[in-house]
Amino acid sequence: MSTSQTSASFRLASRLEQVGFSDIVQIRNKVMDLRTQGKQVHQFEGGEPYLATPNHIKDAMSRALRDNKTRYAPSSGILEMRKAIAKKVSERNNIPARMEDVIVVNGGMQGLFGSFQTVLNPGDEVLMFSPYWTPIKDLIAYSQAKPVFVPTAEARANGIKETLAKYSNARTRAIYYNTPQNPNGEVMTRTDAEAVAAFACDRDLIVFADEAYEDLVYDGEHVSIASLPDMFERTLTSFTLSKSYSMTGWRVGYVVAKEPWMTGLRKTTLYSTNGVSTPSQWAALTALETPIEFFAEMRAAYRKRRDLMVNGLNELGLDCAMPAGAFYAFPDVKRIDRDSRRAAEHLLEAAQVATVPGVVFGEHGEGHLRFSFSTSPEVIEAGLDSMRKNL
Ligand SMILES: Cc1ncc(COP(=O)(O)O)c(C=O)c1O
Asked: Which of 59, 147, 360, 361 is the most buried (most CB within 10 A)?
């Protein structure tokens, strides 16, 4: 290191000090090491749809490129796409959005980033059910606000409103509300959504809704909290095409919100990416026009994998609730090791089964491992078989 790099000038901006970096990347690296050593790894650590992007969407991308739809687009998204999103959320999510209430962003991550930056001031507190999708804690920290973890299990046992009240104070500004949830596949019911909404209205709080897995609900229904009375104006809802259309690498999503939030979202998007790649938006428009039957078939395929995985884990004595949505099983693995990092390591070394330690999703995830069942039934069978033989 040169002397200049040790000087006070070479200091990361303080707003990034509390922002962490992904643990999951370290797990991925370990898996890659094992594979380069020629070992077969049964991979359940991922967070992506196993399906390829459907051909009609890829064809739309080719068409957009051929037709030179490659220039700057409005930074909030092409008109046709925003119109199609307003129609989709009105019809399918029951959120009465107009085109002005919609912005196209680079996936759910940018939507959430923009939403937190739009609403939060330093020192604000955000209630979030825990375990939670790891980046949320860091996105809130990036806004110099404070995440406050509300154990989902406690809320289920003692009541949602009562539990939210217990973790609130005068600095509480908002609630992050994710359904279906990552990492445990829980789906919030309409009654749950009503309880959160009533609490938000009573306390005058803003809601960040994250509906990344809206199309992957196997039991019950998906309820958008912004569709409940008086909620649209106080909710910023992030959607993504990543999971619904197997488009994780395309980086397309959208946020639906009213003013003043939309002005904030337009600014955070303009000054970060200046919008989403134009040809990707034309392809995404075609994705949104996919007939609804597509999802029934997709859900049936995931359901089959879920049942296989969860039944197999329970047979192994790893207690696992049946997830109602998303594509993750989150069994209790204290039988292997109470420390989920050690449990994950043991599973990887003894059975070549790769998972994510539950503690990565917060202290309330400790004692669990996250298994993604977004893979082929053959991989699920082989992984379970290896656990049966080696645990
Ligand atoms: C709960 C949740 N929200 C949002 C996202 C963001 O997805 P993307 O940025 O790929 O659209 C993910 C991705 O894993 C997720 O699990």
From this structure: 361
230 Cα: distance to centroid of ligand 1 (angstroms)? 26
Ligand 1 midpoint to CA 20 (Å)? 17
Number of structural domains (the chain) is 2
- Gap from CA of 203 to ligand 1 centroid (Å): 28
Q: What is the per-residue pLDDT across 209-266, written as a single tens digit (0 to 9) for each?
A: 999 999 999 999 999 999 999 999 999 999 999 999 999 999 999 999 999 999 999 9
* Domain around 99: 70-288
Give the end of a domain, one of 265, 288, 311. 288
Task: Report the relative pairing of strands 328-329 and 369-372 from DSSP bridges.
Answer: antiparallel
The letter for the amino acid at 10 is F
Q: Is residue 59 situated within a structural domain?
A: no
What CATH number corresponds to the domain at position 225? 3.40.640.10
- Least confident range from 3-7, 65-69, 91-95, 114-118: namely 3-7
**What is the position in ligand 1's atom list of the atom closest to the CA of 326?**
16
Q: What is the mean pLDDT of residues 290-311?
A: 96
In this structure, are 227 and 354 located in the same domain? no
Which protein residues are within 6 Å of ligand 1, measured from CB? 47, 107-109, 133, 178, 182, 210, 212, 240, 242, 248, 253
